[in-house]
Amino acid sequence: MPAHGPAATVLPPMVPTSYLLTARRVSLNSAESKVHYMEQKKHNHGSIYRVQALDRALDIIDLFSFHQRRLNLSEVVAQTGLKKTTAKRLLANLTDRGYLRQDPHNKQYELGLRLFELGAVVHAGFSVRKAAIHHIEWLRDKTGLNVLLGQCLEGRLVYVDKREGTGWIKISSSIGEQRPLHFGMLGQVLMADMPLVKVQELLARDPLQAFTPQSITDPETFYRRLADIREKGYAAETGEAHPGIKGVAAPIRDVSGKVIAAIGVALPFPDYTDEEQVKRTLALVLKAAESISIELGHHAS
Q1: Alpha helical stretches, state H, 195-259
Q2: Angstrom distance (rounded) from CA 185 to CA 227
Q3: 123 pLDDT band (50/70/90 cuts)?
Q4: 17-111 has which CATH code?
């Protein structure tokens, strides 16, 4: 089976603030009660090996909520019970890593764009899968084939949903499983939308390798493949991820037009050797990808 596989400080209006972070608000009115809360929390999770510095940093992040979006150093100290020097050091580290940001005028801290980025990754996975579920089933029912939905998460191909077909070929890849991004049809669709420098960076981390004798292992040939996918609007590979399997996949785009996922089917040989049959299947894959993209707010010009 083929495995197919931001620095403005104003959040995009299309993304609800709730995607930033689902933060717990600790409704405690004094430093003493805050300390008691933290000690109780540690007691309740006594079976977990605690890393004190990490716990303290996360306690600071947990102070922020929709009702308490900004805090100064004194407020952090009061609500965590930390020493001022410790709190200041942790705040500096969190700010340096982008998890917090500090207003240079009033010196207050608020959640940083790094948390927005991470929240967007989580939200994208949920929203794509939710938008795609009926279309994945439609594609499976129309073709009888195995259907895979994949996304690029932290530079890896991750399968976020799948449906097994009615034929003898079954999907070996599990939801949540990761592969090198260049592996199979889905990853190639995702990489085709990336700048060359990003593709090269990913290949430096996960070099091309021969999964089968048909796998592309030459970078220049692979770059030409990605260019071909961009031009045609879909990927088609034969036996490059698994022998005897042809993979056909198409991109799923968000409201900005960016490719955020890919959907594809696995056609077993020799059952799918007729070119017209492959073209009909490709048309269904493209239709499913377009339908999911529309649900995500994308409208082709």
Answers
A1: 196-205, 219-232
A2: 14
A3: low
A4: 1.10.10.10
